[in-house]
């Protein structure tokens, strides 16, 4: 749970408590995001530290990642952005940047255990609609979101999901496997 409280509450070291007096001026010492938990962030938060319990283990199949805050690219991560399409294949290239931008979708290959934390003063974006920040090539768009999308909605968007076989599969709604996938 994220808690927004008025400035009169005073400063606090409590985790996930943002103090402020207007929609644009909330700050927190530590924001901790738990993997698999939805958060409602109606206002952005300036945090001194962001902890994310999600760990990306070593994997040949890349992870899809979109964070509501920027982070330095972690050691052991190779980060890719959508570049173009060749025939029927999407082409991703390794980013030449040193940070992963907030709200930007990426593919991340992990060569070891990677944590998505930051100890830098960080701006967390308020909830946004699917695809506010996106990468597009002719006929395809890689979109990020900070919320879980149910299969019905993903199917209606014509979404594909990167599966454990390393291939993109259309989101279907007629099997238990796809109904339970995120």
Briefly say what this structure is.
The chain has 182 residues and is mainly beta. It has helices spanning 151-156, 176-180; strands spanning 3-6, 17-20, 27-33, 45-52, 55-56, 59-65, 71-72, 77-86, 89-94, 99-100, 106-110, 114-115, 122-124, 134-137, 140-143, 160-162, 168-170. It is built from two helices and 17 strands.
Please tell me about this protein's structure.
The chain has helices at residues 151-156, 176-180, and strands at 3-6, 17-20, 27-33, 45-52, 55-56, 59-65, 71-72, 77-86, 89-94, 99-100, 106-110, 114-115, 122-124, 134-137, 140-143, 160-162, 168-170. With 182 residues, it is mostly beta strands. Strand 16 and strand 17 form a beta hairpin. The chain contains 2 helices and 17 strands. Helices cover 6% and strands 42% of the residues.
Beta-strand content estimate = 35-45%
SSE order in H/E notation? EEEEEEEEEEEEEEEHEEH
The helix-and-strand class reads mainly beta
Q: Trace the largest sheet across and list its strands.
A: 6-11-8-9
- How confident overall, as mean pLDDT? 85
Binned, the helix content reads under 10%
By DSSP, the count of extended strands is 17
Q: N- to C-terminal separation?
A: 21 Å
Largest sheet, in brief, is: 4 strands, antiparallel
What is the overall silhouette?
globular
Low-confidence spans: none
- Please compute the radius of gyration using only Cα atoms: 18 Å
**Number of H- or I-type helical stretches:** 2
Kindly list the characteristics that best describe this protein.
182 residues
List the helices and strands and how they pair.
Elements: E1 3-6, E2 17-20, E3 27-33, E4 45-52, E5 55-56, E6 59-65, E7 71-72, E8 77-86, E9 89-94, E10 99-100, E11 106-110, E12 114-115, E13 122-124, E14 134-137, E15 140-143, H1 151-156, E16 160-162, E17 168-170, H2 176-180
Parallel strand pairs: 1-2, 3-4
Antiparallel strand pairs: 4-13, 5-12, 6-11, 7-10, 8-9, 8-11, 14-15, 16-17
